[in-house]
TrEMBL record:
Residues 1-26, 315-349, 640-690 are annotated as: Disordered. Pfam families: AMP-binding, Condensation, PP-binding. Residues 640-652 have a biased composition (Polar residues). Residues 324-333 have a biased composition (Basic residues). Residues 1-18, 334-346 have a biased composition (Low complexity). It comes from Streptomyces rutgersensis. This is AMP-binding protein. InterPro entries: ACP-like_sf, AMP-dep_synth/lig_dom, ANL_N_sf, CAT-like_dom_sf, Condensation_dom, PKS_PP-bd, PP-bd_ACP, Ppantetheine_attach_site. It comes from the Bacteria.
Amino acid sequence: MSPETSATAPTPAHAPSADGPHTDHHRLRTDLAGLWGDVLGTGPVDAAADFTALGGNSLQAARIVARIRTRLGLPVTVAELFEQGTVSALARLLAGRPRDLGDVPPAVTPAPGDGPLLAPAQRRLWFLDQLSPAAGAAYNVPALTRLRGPLETTALDAAWQDVVDRHEQLRTVFTLSGDVLRAGTTGDRAGLDLVDLTGHPDPYGHGVRAADERAARHIDLATGPLGRLTLYRLAADDHLLLLVLPHLISDGRTLDVIDQDLAHAYRRHAGRAPDQAQRELTLAYRDFAHWSAALDQERALGAWRSRLAGAPTVLDLPADHPRPATRSHRGSRLTRTTTGAQRTAASHLATATRTTPYAVTLTAYATLLGELTGRQELLVATPMDGRPDPALEDVVGFFATTVPLRLRPCGDPDRPGALRRAVRETHGVVLDAAHDQHMPFEQLAAELAPAGDLSRTPLTQVALAYQGPRRPHARLDGLDARPLPVDNGTAKFDLTLEIHESGDEFEITAEYATDLFTRERAARMLDRYLEILAMVVHAPEARDADVDVAGPGRLPAARHSAPAGADPRCLHETFAETAARHPHSVAVTDGTRSLTYLELDRAANRLAHRLRAHGATPDGLVGLCAERSVDLVVGVLATSSPVPDTSRSTLGTPPPGCATPSPTPSAASCSATPPPAPRCSTAKPAPSSP
């Protein structure tokens, strides 16, 4: 990417005048082609090339839009860029458009004075840190890299000090003076902490575990420097490099910035000529903090009220443990890699729908959550870049914003192409939210979420973060650098999916709250997500009725008459078949409790054994008295099913000492209508009673 000018640099000679439209269509098209190429890393693009076919995503679109506003002075939205699709079409749209930026946020300009300033979002994270050290640790941002080759530790130490000197946020500390939170700087040197593991019998395994443990430590925000760099020496030419930053001064892009700056400084201190000049920083985080504090949020707040009016702010996934009164932030992580070139397939679907792979993966996630909960709509949190000016792209700091997306699982089940429509709809929701992404999350939560509930995150309890390639700039000259995942034993939400691109595949990590879920359940949810994602990307043209997207977790819709040729099998037989195929999908929910097919099968078996022990016979009558609840369904299955032969059962396990033989049930217990094949649906599951 070529060096860029400041947002406050003089307007190009061929840009529109201060009060008039851009009249030179050819020059505008040339400018746009150059801006696209800067962001996409391709050089000037063909004016007829489609943005999504070039591999463009929503983050890159936002960066292009920021450049158009700051360099050309023209108002444009991310949605318009996707709608037009090509440089030529966008140039036609913008030609003749006046320079009235309307409700676009103002430009970022240098803040008066000197020294660090606090952004509104930083206050929220500081408060969370003070509320609970565990919450602070959950918001640590770790980065682990394995370095193989001849590492010059003195050069690395000096390079890290250069990076800290370059970025004020890495020298910033936060203190409370009376009732006022203040940001200041520390003069303490940011040293490299060296840990020698060469004498350990398993230096790599021990080093990874030590890195996980160090990444989980609470960072005192009043004592700097806040960035901690640790080097674990495994052998003379093998090291693990761990960087841990508090989220208060960093975000995902910050890691890319540090990777690039550290590589540049290391090359210089190692005595090698830098491969290119380092870009001068024309704006600092304090300028962004001043800008964000001065934003008029009334219009944005009104837009968010409209978007989220009536949206459900509580989403309870099927859990193994009761939700504690206060979140502990304890968590764990699981990672899976897709198969079948799913990232490539997602890119093809994104190109066909003029969306992004992010929208594809988000649609699959909404479908999974709908399957697990039966919800017709839900809120999913997602991070956005939050940098409003190109001059801030190389600045370290906490710019990222969290926005709640109001999503509908799946789409219309009765027409072909529903999956594509669902992806487009999700994409539209993302673009709409991006327009008002600078609204502080805590302000949204205060307005729209119930107050005082410390058991869950406000507004939404699930999140998805599409990260792209894992730290593509992690490299040091003369070394083989490979980024590694870190599990610091924390979770910010009940369930978060992190999506990384890895060649033709996705590497997908589930971060889950261990207060709620066992590792087995988290693994089932992640595996089911991979199944749904594969269905979405490989069958975009299929009718939803022919694709098992909604999966076995949905109860079939009730039918009032049997179609011709209906399966004459009994209810317990069709249930057993479905349960054997999908034991860990949700079978029934009543809004308070949920049971998987396996759990429902076991509960019905236990009740059937108790009924048999109390004298119930195959042809006898058993009365059921229950609310419309999970218990009623358990009762129906228990009375219509034979007591299973445990020597053949693959699901239920009766209590020890119970008899296993069972007579055949009466014909009266048989269902005239088999359940239909699962299909994609936005409807709620059938009621919990038959």
